[in-house]
Amino acid sequence: xxxxxxxxxxxxxxxxxxxxxxxxxxxxxxxxxxxxxxxxxxxxxxxxxxxxxxxxxxxxxxxxxxxxxxxxxxxxxxxxxxxxxxxxxxxxxxxxxxxxxxxxxxxxxxxxxxxxxxxxx
Length: 121
Known about the structure:
This protein has 121 residues and is α/β, with parallel strands linked by helices.
């Protein structure tokens, strides 16, 4: 039996956060939304199956969070999709250890394809 997958979304733009959370819940995912990307660094248990992480958030850079996650043995297998309004930084997102990159604005089908491709079964 397949377990419902859990996705955590970290984005400091409340409009994007709400819209993506609603769309993914509609698609049948368990979704946790936070405007604070550093929150994922404090999670010791109940990790999500995938993290959607905005690169430029107030207070901390999503690439730095991604690097920390990928260096930690507890979280290094967690798939991370970095999101940014800047299309020019895909290379630095992947260099930070991201499993994938998505430029804003994005089509919901592109988001869903990236999620499905990166989810660990």
